[in-house]
Amino acid sequence: MSAHGHVDLGHTVAGWTGTTLALLGFAGAGAAVCAAWVPGIWIGLGVVAVAGIVTWVLHLAGWGKPSGPRPEADWDWRVRDARAHAGHADCLGCRVGGPRRARAAAPRPRAAAPLPAADNAT
Predict the structure, then answer these.
(1) Which residues, in sequence order, are CB contacts of 117 under 8 Å at separation 6+?
(2) For this UniProt entry, which segments traverse the membrane (predicted)?
(3) Residue 12: phi, psi to the nearest 5?
(4) Residue (of 83, 78, 77, 76) closest to 62 by Cα position
């Protein structure tokens, strides 16, 4: 068992790809700052922007995960989400992905949590 307990940490192809590209972009921009190479700074920051776009596209293609915990069988980072083509509920990325996904991903009203009982032992 890991230090985090038995939980879904959300490791996905979209997450790993985006994180790797963003890390490379920030490292490149940081090296360019140290070398005082202005075009390199912009190239590095461009790679970071591309990382966000690539992550979003992979999420829409089913290589991401919906919000919240997943079934334990889907915890492997190589498992593709077959329900992603319709959009995930309460997912901003899916709402931006087009009208069909926006309808499926529209925020749904949540049931009100029951209020705790008042302690009348006075």
Answers:
(1) none
(2) 41-61
(3) -140, 165
(4) 83
Domain boundary assignment for the chain: 13-66+81-105
Q: Please tell me whether the overall predicted TM-score, pTM, comes out greater than 0.85 for this model.
A: no
3-state secondary structure of 88: coil
As given in the structure block, the two tokens for residue 18 are 């985006």
Collapse the DSSP code of 83 into the 3-class scheme (helix H, G, I; strand E, B; otherwise coil) and give the result. Answer: helix
Quote the pLDDT of residue 55. Answer: 93
* Residue that has been written with the tokens 């087009």 in this structure: 98
Surface-to-core class of residue 14, CB atoms within 10 Å of its CB (0-12 exposed, 13-18 middle, 19+ buried): buried
- Identify residue 105 by its one-letter amino acid code: A
The enclosing H or E element of 15 equals: helix 13-34
HSE (side-chain half, CA atoms, 13 Å) at 35? 12
Q: What is the pLDDT of residue 114?
A: 63
Q: What is the mean pLDDT of each run of 10 residues along the chain (122 residues)?
A: 67 92 97 97 97 93 82 80 76 76 65 60 56
Q: What is the pLDDT of residue 37?
A: 97
